[in-house]
Write a structure and sequence with these properties.
The protein is an all-alpha fold and 478 residues long. It contains 26 helices and 2 strands. Among the domains are: 87 residues, Serine Threonine Protein Phosphatase 5, Tetratricopeptide repeat (Alpha Horseshoe), CATH 1.25.40; 120 residues, no CATH class. Strands 1-2 form a two-stranded antiparallel sheet. The two termini are 35 Å apart.
Amino acid sequence: MASKTTLNAENLEALGTQRLAQLLMEIAEGDGATKRRLRLELTAQEAPEAMAAEVRKRLTQIARSRSFADWRRVRELAADLEAQHRAIIDKVAKIDAAEALELTWRFMEMAETVHGRCDDSNGAVGEVFRDACRDLGPLTQAAKPDPVALADRVFAALNENGYGQYDHLIETLRPSLGAKGLDHLKRRFTELARAPVERPSSEKRKVIGWGTGGPLYEDEIKARRRESTVRLALREIADVQGDVDAFIDQYDERTRKVPRIAAEIARRLLAARRAEDALRTLEAADHRRSDWPDFDWEDAQIDVLEALGRTNEAQAARWSCFERALSAEHLRAYLKRLPEFEDVEAEARALDYAGRYSSLLQALAFLVSWPALDRAARVVTARAAELDGDYYEMLAPSADALAAKHPLAATLALRAMIAFTLTKARSSRYRHAARHFMECESLAATIKDFGAFETHTAYAARLKAQHARKSGFWSLIS
């Protein structure tokens, strides 16, 4: 049972309404965000129909503000924005869906100016706007605006999407746009693509930066941005309309040969039951087999081969991905498609291969996650000299996984991290190295035979002799 002093709703209720009200007033004193939140709650209770006016008033204030919110104040700004967003969705929308939709559009229109006056390196402000954009979907379905008018609003929004706040807007609003709205939206973007780009005279061109090729002109940047906006919009429209050919048309011949793009096109063709076309697209790509798989292209190829009934080739491709990257996902898919009993033999062969893999750390990570801890332990003891203690993010969890049944292997992984830390004098890691040393000491009691490796006593003595001056480390050993 939680203590009566634990901070939770039940314990706070026990204080009584009068005391809670006093505390809230004290907290709100000098805190504008809290005051606004409390005022919204009071309005919602006493005059819910006035909520929209309160929110609209605050949105106007936020939009007009010019003060910069640095990293210290940006969370306060994000909290204020979220409070207005929630008031629209939780309060206004329950009374008037059309009003809530209009307020959300107005909210979203602030994104450019708000982002321009804040340091949103932690992404808190951007996430509030992306959440609001997602809410446009259910709001439009409830409010049922005219599809053509909605398409015009989407067109305007996507042309002001400098911070990605409207990403995926077409997909979000697909049910409300319908065929009529989507056709109108496509027509508007097609017309925009055909419209000539105004270019100022040489004397009036504005330089806004410099690149490796020389000056960057404002009109050129705007033209590129417009072209990118059009292409992205037409691709998304093509996707929601299920028009694969229209999607493909948004890429020129050269771009279609990029393996990642070819994979995107192939997947859409496959979904449209055009597997042969999908394979031709993949084969036309500038793809070269390398030591590390290009998973986008190769996974698309596997799916296409399966769809065409070329299962042996698909299996060979899965095994190839496993061999080059020790991909557990591809190995599991490969084993799943083998006849009964053959999978056991194939798994053993795969684990043998993993044990010989050129990168010991990658082999260890694969064997531990598979899991094949017996094999992982054998690999560690056989290739202990190859352990790179700098990769603590891989060795630490491996040591934890091996400790219970393979304490010697776990100890060797821990010693590798300790050796790196002390040899390189990484004082910031001393605390972790000291913990690893004490873990080695604890594991020593469970190791019956150290074999060719030092006992813990000998290891500790050597470490003390080699790094006696690193007092920052030894002071942490209890």
